[in-house]
Amino acid sequence: MEDRRILEGHDGDLKGQAERIGQEFLQGFLAVERIGGPAITVFGSARVTEDDPVYAQARDMGRRLVEAGFAVVTGGGPGVMEAANRGVKEAGGLSVGFNIELPHEQGSNAFLDIAYTFKHFYARKVCFVKPAEGFVIFPGGFGTLDELFEALTLIQTGKAENFPVVLVDTDYWGELMVWVKGEALADGMISDDDLALLHVTDDLDFAVHTIVDSYGARSAETPAEPHKADAQ
Questions:
Q1: Taking the CA of residue 19 as centre, how many other CA atoms within 13 Å lie in the half-sphere pointing to its CB?
Q2: How many Cα atoms are found within 13 Å in the side-chain-facing hemisphere of 17?
Q3: N or C: which end of the chain has fewer CB within 10 A?
């Protein structure tokens, strides 16, 4: 894998490595430019199957976000990502997938209008944030948690817009919130304002309204239906 070779390598090809990373950022940014309108990024586990209630929720969320005027960006793979992209396509919206080359997973799902597969996680992660007017995060593992805490860090430090971060499934995220409040907040490691960046819910209507209200407060325009680019 390219990331591992860069992190472990001592071949002296620093210029070549930097150029390859820069080229991937450029291709990712070009893909983001094709979205052409406000987008929401949806995260969640690749391991969720089609018969899982979380899959159904993510599919419904994709549809609802289209109806609210947004394109939807995911990691482009299976599970929650597939479900969200599927809901978007079924609703006639713009479905975007930014996948990643991994040694044993994961192929792109079949519900994408705009797709790009990255070699480097860091370039991919920037392209999740760059078009986003909000994050919706379903149950997931280390990758999902990584995206969650990176988003919070970028917002907290002013590196990214203060967009809503919505966690769907209070049962799944409940213990994490207990720890965040009982340890990080109680010990002064974060503030009440930092905690307020997170919205936890089981109500998809609440999730969408939170995003729409926040977007409306930042923009004088009502979200318009994104231009649907040709699939590539």
A1: 4
A2: 15
A3: C
Distance of CA 52 to the CA centre of its chain: 20
Beta partners for residue 71, in sequence order:
39
C-beta separation of 204 from 166 below 8 A: no
| 159 closest CA partner among 192, 189, 126 | 126
User: Residue 230: is its pLDDT beyond 60?
Assistant: no
Sequence-ordered alpha helix ranges (H) in 109-141: 121-129
Q: Which two tokens stand for residue 191?
A: 């503030």
Structure tokens at 226: 């994104």
Q: How far is Cα 10 from Cα 32, in angstroms, rounded to an integer?
A: 33
CA–CA distance, 217 with 221 (Å, rounded to integer)? 9
Q: Which helix (H) or strand (E) holds 121?
A: helix 121-129
CA–CA separation, 142 and 2 (whole Å): 20
> What DSSP string runs through 62-89?
HHHHHHTT-EEEE-SSSTHHHHHHHHHH
Q: What is the pLDDT of residues 161-200, one digit of tens each?
A: 899 999 999 999 999 999 999 999 999 999 999 999 999 9
CA atoms of 143 and 165, how far apart (whole Å): 16
DSSP summary character for residue 221 = S
